[in-house]
Each structure stands twice: as C-alpha cells, then as structure tokens.
Amino acid sequence: MTSQQHSIDDLLYQLEQELRRLTLWSLVKPSPEKLMSTAPFCVDTLRFEQWLQYIFLPQMYQLIKNLQPLPTQIALCPMAEEAFVGLSDKAADLINIIGDIDELLSGQRQQQKFLRHE
Questions:
Q1: Measuring CA to CA, which residue among 59, 72, 61, 69 is closest to residue 11?
Q2: Cβ-count burial of 60 within 10 angstroms (0-12 exposed, 13-18 middle, 19+ buried)?
Q3: Does residue 47 lie within any of the structural domains?
Q4: What is the residue range of 23's domain?
C-alpha cells in the first residue's frame, strides 16, 4: 500500500465515522435500481450521504484493496457543502474530511465553508 493509499484509507475511515456520528449513516440499503443511477452522485435517486456510503466508500475501499490507481480528478466538497447546508456548523468536521480527500487525490481543495485554520 502506498503512503497515499494509506492516507486515503485513514480519511475514508474518518468519513465513515463522522457520517455515523452525525446519524447520517443508513441502516437500510437503497434498492439496486437507485444505486444504478447514472446521474452524478446519483442525485436523482440518493441523498449525498447515501451516495458516499453505498457508492463512494465501497468503490474507494475496493481500489485500495486491489492496489489500483486512485482517482485524480475529484471534487466532492462543493456537493458536500450544498448537501449538508442544513446541518450548519455541525457539518464542519465532515466537510473538512471531504475536503482533505479532495486535496489528497486531486491536489485541489474547492472548499468554501468551515475551512480549518492551521
């Protein structure tokens, strides 16, 4: 496992834990039809957190497990900021984790809200 894959694996775990902490983790899997949407982020059939849980996380874990190249053009943060606007600042950690994933994979951070000041 490369250092990038190890770092992404850690961030994916943090993402899962934060979704659970915010009670956004679903216990009921969407129907296969909903998971097969071809719309970006399955926006026509799933909530964004469902897409993260049932599409993004499993695909990323599979790439890491099989030591396959990770995506390099990714920008989840703008969608996350829009999807979680109703959570207000409760979503700060979640959005920062997603921003970290974007930055590690693509080298860019398109995050506008809840930026950490380091």
A1: 61
A2: buried
A3: yes
A4: 3-106
The total domain count for the chain is 1
pTM attached to this predicted model? 0.94
Q: What is the CATH number of the domain that holds 27?
A: 1.20.1440.40
31 phi, psi to nearest 5 deg: -65, 155
The CB density around residue 35, as the number of other CB atoms within 10 Å, is: 15
- 86 domain residue, yes or no: yes
Distance between CA atoms of residues 27 and 33, nearest Å: 18
Q: Say if residues 17 and 66 touch (Cβ distance below 8 Å).
A: no
Query: pLDDT per residue over 38-65, tens digit each?
Result: 999 999 999 999 999 999 999 999 999 9
Q: What is the pLDDT of residues 18-43, one digit of tens each?
A: 999 999 999 999 999 999 999 999 99
